[in-house]
Amino acid sequence: MIDHEVRTYKSSENLAREDQLAWKIAEVAADDVAVDPAVEDMVINRVIDNASVAAASVRRSAPTHAREQAQTHPMKPGAPVFGLSLDETVSPEWAAWANGVAVRELDFHDTFLAKEYSHPGDNIPPILAVAQHKGIAGADLVRGIATGYEIQVDLVKGICLHEHKIDHVAHLGPSAAAGIGTLLHLPTEVIFQAVQQALHVTTATRQSRKGEISSWKAHAPAFAGKMAVESVDRAMRGEGAPNPIYEGEDGVIAWLLSGPEARYTVPLPAKGEVKRAILDTYTKEHSAEYQAQALIDLARKIGAQIEDFSKIRKVTIHTSHHTHNVIGTGANDPQKMDPKASRETLDHSIMYIFAVAMEDQAWHHERSYAPERAGRPETVELWHKIETREDPEWTRRYHSTDPDEMAFGGRVEIEFEDGSTLVDELAVADAHPNGARPFARENYIEKFRTLAEGIITEAEQNRFLDLAQNLSSLSGEEVRRLSFTVEGLAHSGSKGIF
Hints:
Elements (H helix, E strand, L loop, with lengths): L1 E6 L13 H10 L6 H21 L3 H11 L2 E7 L8 E2 L1 H13 L7 E2 L3 E2 L5 H11 L3 H21 L13 H12 L4 H13 L15 H21 L15 H4 L7 E6 L24 H11 L8 E8 L1 H7 L15 H4 L3 H11 L10 H4 L2 H7 L2 E5 L1 H7 L11 E7 L4 E6 L14 H12 L5 H11 L7 H5 L18
Parallel strand pairs: 7-8
Antiparallel strand pairs: 1-6, 2-3, 4-5, 7-9, 9-10
Helix pairs in contact: 1-7, 1-8, 2-4, 2-6, 2-18, 3-4, 4-5, 4-9, 5-6, 5-7, 5-9, 6-7, 7-8, 7-9, 8-9, 11-14, 14-16
């Protein structure tokens, strides 16, 4: 890997294209390197993982409306949409939109955390949609996905967005554009323009993840993927983009991030180096914000040791700055304590999540968020006894670059009315690569079958899994069938412009 220093340049300095971060990203995307077998294996896992979550969310409001929007843009050959007949295809940017919403709706697919937050599986819907529309075979699809993961992970390692209240999808637009560039074997110049355009149109505030969180949380990465497809299309036609997008005097670093004096270091693979970043990422066993994963596992363990939850006086979760300030009491969001809050808000409330996981010793993507579950008086009472506190050591471990030291959990102290205490901690989720039960292929398949049960027929499940597990050897026509159909999928009846 090569560390690239990125800073603002005055227009009079005339920064050469070859010295710009977007160009270096494009060079990585255009570098035709072999795919490591472990990377190929993990790409397959994440294709299955995405489909799992899409299956579970396919009848929910946001995916339904996104799908109905996509259906108004039919195209041949086009790309399929999760849930619809494989023969009903739409324009690829709209397939990326609909499938992206379905994948992101339940906050249940993969994650990578470093200087910024990310869900790199969001790269898959736009890259896959373009492959399906263009009839591209599985081997190139794997290469494209590997690039999408590589660029997003590397940007997340180097550039913090959230401290400036910029949403993390600002790293997704460039990474998806780069992945599509790899998929299509585009020249560096075209990818360079597409990366810049995709970044320019996907910088937005983090209000989508603050306060009363709405369904836009699921739409935001889908929008970035849609913009990436359109940016590549535009660049392929010979059109340019704002330049230099990162380093310009009026660019992203100067005005949206840390300002003209700031320096960022972004690692990128050297020429000829294999793209392995997907192996640094991790998926979710539970449908909730990633920082909740280890704490759910810990809550289940602790809950089994408590006979009477009404005897609890106070629960304190000592954790990282991010967990405290984004999903904890440090966010100062009263909505996180509201039994009538939206599902999107509750899955960003570790106080709610920890209470329910303790009481049930389980976590379910639907039952754990049901209004009647959130409104139980005894749950509300326990929930309101929970607070988070930032612990410098947990913050340090959260930001560690040592994989064996990185931690996304916390230490929990429970005080009972009789003065006794219960203390325990967990650094990483059980499903994490360093956890008690790291996810392997069989776990991804089990997750797919569990979430697809009662939604996708067994025969359709088998057909999809057979294609996904042979991804690199699929023909272009077989890649077009890499979706699933849900029988009896009804329309919502909603009306818009389209």
